UniProtKB/TrEMBL annotation:
Superkingdom: Eukaryota
Protein's GO biological process: carotenoid metabolic process
UniProt cross-references to Pfam families, sorted A to Z: NAD_binding_8 (PF13450)
Organism for this UniProt entry: Aegilops tauschii
The protein's name in its UniProt record: Putative all-trans-retinol 13,14-reductase
Amino acid sequence: MPHRVGIASRCRAVAAPAGPPPPGVAERPEADVVVIGSGLGGLCCAGLLARYGQDVVVLESHDRPGGAAHSFDVKGFHFDSGPSLFSGFQSRGPQANPLAQVLDALGESVPCASYDSWMVHVPEGQFESRIGPTDFLKVTTLCLYQDALVIVVIFFLQDLETYVGLDATREWQKLLYQKRSQDAVIPISAAAMALPPLSIRGDLGILSTAAGRYAPSLLQSLIKMGPRGALGATKLLRPFSEIVDSLELKNPFVRNWIDLLCFLLAGVKSDSALSAEMVYMFAEWYKPGCKLEYPLGGSGAIIDALVRGIEKFGGRLALNSHVEKILIENGRAVGVKLRGGQESDKQSRLLSNSR
């Protein structure tokens, strides 16, 4: 979802006469909204703005769109550069994948193949990773947590124990559920699951987008969790690495595996992945009947669909358009300067999805 998107004062993206525009810049650079970066967040933002009547241009430094989610081909083989664990593209309603909701609003869809396991090749060995409460798990128990019956999957993964050791297995169990701990995934998952995925964000804006609209269900979950549980739930707005550190997980394989899952889900490591997103996905993965979905054509197929949606509603994408500097006046962002020297005027809104 959108990553570090900021809105500034109005600025108009008009190429200045200082030099020719970079290759790939849209023919009509004027826009109501200038979006910097064509990652998933930038494209979703631009698509929805275009859908609701805004004139939008997306400025992308690379020669292809997608950011961390772009795809590329080498000698006939297709590769994803970032996130590749997806689910919920076929779902609808408040609990649907936010990306699926954006595509639906744009009148686009992405065909997917469903699966519930994948092969893992690591230095320690090769094993099959599964989701869902299957017999691949050695133990599944029911426990009563603060008057709420939840399925706690004690993840004694046979291959984890075989290739890494019992210590790693214990730490994985500790991550999912640890008695008297409010930092483990299961205890705080109730708060994450009480909110629709689209409302989850990593700043105080969640007070308006989530708590204001979904206060009853959120309050009910926090009451069931108790005071300590509610306090632990505040970590949902922090990086997932803070939960990992608070549980004192030391095993190198476990920490690397967590970083890998964060990257496959969000394109970043655990120190940049939002805890709410990771906790939600962990809880979602072990529900009965849960499936993952791989877009046919890879993550690039998602990017292509978003670009089609933007262009369908009159938005534009300008590749090879590196934003060298965000122009600041009186403490506010008022425009951009491109690598070729072009500067925007000060008439449209500016949104930055860059890192």
